[in-house]
Amino acid sequence: FVDGFLPSAPAAGVDLFYPPPYYSFWNDLTVESVRKSLKWLRGLLARNGPYDGVMCFSQGCSLIASFCLYHQAETPLQPLPFNAAIFICGGVPFQVLDDLGVDITKEAWEINQKSAKALAEQASTDAILKAGLDRWTSTEGLNTNGDAALDPANVFGLDFTKMPKHLQIKVPTVHIYGNKDPRSTASLQLAQFSDPTLSKTYDHGGGHDVPRKTNVSEDIARLVEWVSWAASVR
Residues 106-112: what's their mean pLDDT? Predict the structure, then answer.
């Protein structure tokens, strides 16, 4: 994975498992900070790309999702500099959606803020030491189980029946999340921005992480194979 370009404090709980230094793509989530990161990313892609695909986790998903949506809004006739994307436990920032003219309801903002707060609490060092993997619980009152049907008119407060048609990710995608992740709502919202004929969604059953289980690893490997194939036949 590519390191972020900004020195940063560790995300909640990260310092228990990984030593410094720590980096991020932004330290304060604003449209300006995201656009600064996108400028850095475009430089990276120009120097080293194009790529067959990208795989991202958490804040990395926010970066790549923002890149894709701004690309579609601002340079729709140009192809993306990668042919596929795999998003793991992440969504698109509401600040970016608002900047792109998406109608974000009060309900959506409340769910977004509530889930972000829950993630910070459940990912904290105290939560890890007290409860381990049992600390993960989905955002209270919201069903993000992989078997649950989503209403496109109300995906945790966002109405995708009224979403601008040009705001669609045009490459094959895989969206991996855990139904116990407080931020699974954001993962499922991001999945709605993909072409349903070129996208797969997978619930790994855990929290804001990737469970180290054989069946999960095998399932994700098959999804990587699928998205690679889907990109190759377009």
Answer: 96
